[in-house]
Amino acid sequence: MLYYLLYPLHATYSAFNVFRYITFRAAMAALMALLISFILGPYLIRALSAMQIGQPIRDDGPASHAAKAGTPTMGGVLIILALMIATVMLADVANLYIAVVLFVTVGFGTIGFVDDFLKLSRKNSRGLSARMKLVLQFAVALAGVAILYRQPAYSSVLGVPFFKNIRPDLGLWYIPFAALVIVGASNAVNLTDGLDGLAIGPVMTAAGTYAFITYLTGNKTFADYLQIPYVAGVGELSVFCAAVVASGLGFLWFNTYPAQMFMGDVGSLALGAALGIVAVTAKNEILLVIVGGVFVIEALSVIFQVVSYKLRRKRVFLMAPIHHHYELKGWPEPQIIVRFWIVSIICALVALSTLKLR
Predict the structure, then answer these.
(1) CA distance 258 to 227
(2) SS (H, E, C) the chain
(3) Closest Cα to residue 195, out of 41, 339, 36, 37?
(4) Mean pLDDT of 310-331
(5) Percent with pLDDT over 90 in the chain
(6) What is the pTM of this model?
């Protein structure tokens, strides 16, 4: 909104010409999202505490987590609210990519909200059934991808990191593939959200990485130089990604160990889907495997654990996801969190290096 209100004034006051630049609006969106998070965070914590919206703890989780029972949850509402306001105020909301990304993010956030609400109302850790959750997630993801696919300039060709000449065209199969990327990213972040601040750190790193990638992808000169797909208009997503980083940072102020509130499924499902749809929109879908390396490791640890137990009746890890394995090995929670953050930064640097190594 501010973009439409203030940029036209540049004809009279040249200072307002700065709103023309994506980099400036991305920075302003980040500051706005951070400020909103800092202001509303304490009010949200008090409101959630007053309504007794406390986190139910799984019976099969680490015993040390019992002390966290009752910590206000659904704090992801703060993240979504901050990034939505900042994006709507400073991005070009007429841009189709912005509209689709917001639709998918809010859609997955709504699914997470319902899941959290059911857990709280039932006073246990069981919300929506896994099948129902997946059906709803794929419905939202397929709708978002279908809108993108119908655009004349949108391509079903995949870019493969490190290989500039390998570019498979999936045709109509691109729609289910892209939907799988979004749903997979959403659930991988959800699995990672098990310790105070563990998930939000890699989310911020990944969002910051894609803020850079979307800017390059939306700039024909840079895209041609780096030999990456050029998608006209997708650079506007840098504003959204910057808002994700800052709203996550604001949330981390209250979520850092020991957490004053948890994000809940409303936050983890929405943020994971946001990363997925941004990767799809920027035509760097496969790169998300590297950027979100921590999320991939967490998801694979669960898959390996389940498959191993079903086939061999033996566990690979002491407990899955893998961050619980290290808890049971005696690693202090803050140590696990920070080390996973470090791994996420390394993954981001490797991902960025692929832009040149093609």
Answers:
(1) 45
(2) CHHHHHHHHHHCCHHHHHHHCHHHHHHHHHHHHHHHHHHHHHHHHHHHHHCCCECCCCCCCCHHHHHHCCCECCCHHHHHHHHHHHHHHHCCCCCHHHHHHHHHHHHHHHHHHHHHHHHHHHCCCCCCCHHHHHHHHHHHHHHHHHHHHCCCCCCCECCECCECCCCCECHHHHHHHHHHHHHHHHHHHHHHCCCCCCCHHHHHHHHHHHHHHHHHHCCHHHHHHHCCCCCCCHHHHHHHHHHHHHHHHHHHHHHCCCCCCCCHHHHHHHHHHHHHHHHHHCCCCCCHHHHCHHHHHHHHHHHHHHHHHHHHCCCCCCCCCHHHHHHHCCCCHHHHHHHHHHHHHHHHHHHHHCCCCC
(3) 339
(4) 90
(5) 66
(6) 0.93
User: Radius of gyration of the chain from Cα atoms?
Assistant: 20
26 CB neighbour count, 10 Å cutoff: 27
Nearest alpha carbon to residue 198 among 300, 322, 48:
322
**Residues in Cβ contact with 241 at an 8 Å cutoff, skipping those fewer than 6 apart:** 26, 207, 208, 210, 211, 214, 278
How many other CB atoms sit within 10 Å of the CB of residue 252?
Answer: 19
Where b means 16+ CB within 10 Å and e means fewer, 131-159 reads: eebeebbeebbbebbebbbeeeebbbebb
Over the stretch 194-207, which tens digit does the pLDDT of each residue have? Answer: 899 999 999 999 99
Overall size of the chain counted in residues: 358
Among candidates 216, 167, 215, 178, which has minimal Cα distance to 358?
A: 167
pLDDT higher than 80, residue 96: yes
Domain boundaries, the chain: 2-289
Closest by CA to 320, choosing from 333, 307, 303, is 303
**Closest by Cα among 356, 138, 174 to 281:** 174
Contact residues for 81 (Cβ-Cβ < 8 A; gap 6+) = 36, 40
Task: Tell me the two tokens of residue 338.
Answer: 């920070």
